[in-house]
Amino acid sequence: MKNLIINTFLIITLLSCNSQKENEIKVENKPKYVVTKEEGRLWIKSNQLFKPVFMLKIDSSTQNLAKFQLGKMLYYEKGLSKNSNISCNSCHNLEKFGVDNEPTSPGTDGVRGGRNSPTSLNAHLHFAQFWDGRAKTVELQAQRPILNPIEMGCPSQSFVIEKVQSNPKYAGLFLKAFPNQLMDYEKLTSTIGYFERFLNTPSRFDKFLANDFEALNEKEKLGLKIYIETGCQSCHNGIALGGSMYETFGKYDNYQKHTTSKKIDNGMFDLTKNENDRFKFKVPSLRNITETYPYFHDGSVTNINEAVKIMAKIQLNKELSESQIEAIVAFLGTLKGEIPEYAKLKNKNS
Ligand code: HEC
Ligand code: HEC
Fold first, then answer.
1. pLDDT score at 188
2. Do 141 and 148 meet the contact criterion of CB atoms below 8 Å apart?
3. Which of 60, 203, 205, 219 has fewest C-beta within 10 Å?
């Protein structure tokens, strides 16, 4: 924080003086690195538009630790599916940036749904869950896939409770997490949400936001600049670079023409029946985006360069050159973060 203040002060001085000798101004804590005016501006603008994420510490109070442990075990528990063959982790694999890299994912009976599995990493930072935002929080979201017939397919809440109760380890952790309380579906699934609230993935971009100007190379900084100037930030902004609003997919042209989607998905219209909501989707987060292919709500586009090109065209009515696209993609690569060790199955310490 102290460094941040020093640098902010320096950059403000740097921007306010009209000196041609900007290259002589040095950042105190990094004596060798010289911040140019343009970099200073990019940094200030970035801090206005985005916010860094940090690696979180698990709360070690008995109750919260038990919640975390129970939530983590349930996240990996195949027993929560009708045929005991899939878990949350099958579609949101925490070794694979919270996705399965499939256009759409097979459920407990092998049947695929119509939408692409978004990553569970950083999802708790979104203002709503699902492509159409139909669940408000990760806790409420976690209630759904277990009972969804084409996902985990459990027949009822009581079926799930009985399964969990019959495992002494789970029953014991539940009592630690919720002393003297009866197990119910809402409390049980809320622990999965609790676990997901620790799935932050800090990246090189967060270091840059903090004040490490060397965390990004020249091409990546150029990409960030183009990303902002092109207008991507008007939708993909905030702490998750997305997840803060709904927007029409295809503001300037039908998305299907560009994605070659086989099925037409009406997005939020199917929920609200409001004509303004046709093709409206939650703006997805771009954290870890280079790893979470294929892209869009139906996984119809595999290549990230192609996805960026389509975005510019149909969301902003702009044609980007190949080199501009490459620079943006280089910047997007800096959003690839670190998956917390404590979230991984093999990590037995938590
Ligand atoms: C069969 C694959 C599958 C399984 C199993 C599954 N999910 Fe999902 N998940 C999806 C799909 C597909 C979506 C998007 C559906 C939509 O938006 O209509 C989704 C959406 C989500 C989201 C919203 C993310 C966002 O950016 O909006 C979260 C969080 C999530 N799932 C967590 C879980 C948890 C926790 C479990 C286990 C209880 C689970 N999922 C089980 C496929 C799966
Ligand atoms: C007007 C709002 C808006 C603007 C501007 C915008 N996007 Fe998007 N973006 C969206 C929406 C909405 C989606 C989800 C579309 C879908 O799949 O239904 C999306 C999806 C994406 C995806 C795929 C995400 C995933 O998880 O599959 C990428 C990558 C992306 N945008 C990058 C960009 C880039 C780069 C720019 C600038 C060139 C940009 N976007 C401009 C609204 C916008």
1. 98
2. no
3. 60
Our mutation pick for probing the ligand 2 site, out of 102, 227, 235, 253, counting the most ligand atoms within 8 A of Cβ, is: 235
- Looking at the CA of 188, which ligand is closest? 1
Which atom of ligand 2 lies closest to the CA of 265? Answer: 18
| CB-count burial class (<10 Å; 0-12, 13-18, 19+) for 113 | middle
pLDDT in tens, 127-169: 999 999 999 999 999 999 999 999 999 999 999 999 999 999 9
Residue of 84, 85, 88, 194 best suited for mutating to test ligand 1, as the one with most atoms within 8 Å of CB: 88
Residue numbers in the chain where pLDDT is lower than 50:
1-6, 8-24
Give the pair of three-digit tokens for residue 320.
Answer: 């980007």
pLDDT at 346: 83
Task: Determine the atom of ligand 2 nearest the C-alpha atom of 304.
Answer: 29
Instruction: Scan for tokens 């037409």, then name that residue.
Output: 264
The answer, yes or no, to whether any atom of ligand 1 lies below 6 A from the CB of 79, is no
Cis check: omega of the bond before 294, within 30 degrees of 0: yes
| Ligand 1 within 6 A of CB of 246 | no
- What pLDDT sits at residue 27? 54
How is residue 159 written in tokens?
């079926």
Rounded Cα distance between 196 and 200, Å, is 9
The answer, yes or no, to whether any atom of ligand 2 lies below 6 A from the CB of 123, is: no
pLDDT of 26:
53
The pLDDT value recorded for residue 136 is 97
Q: Mark out the alpha helices in the chain (DSSP H runs).
A: 2-16, 37-49, 62-75, 88-91, 138-141, 143-147, 157-165, 168-177, 185-196, 204-210, 218-230, 255-259, 269-272, 304-316, 322-333
Q: How far is the CA of 242 from the centre of ligand 2 (A)?
A: 8
Domains and CATH numbers, the chain: 62-199 (1.10.760.10), 205-333 (1.10.760.10)
SS3 275: helix
- The CB of 296 under 6 Å from ligand 2? The reply is yes
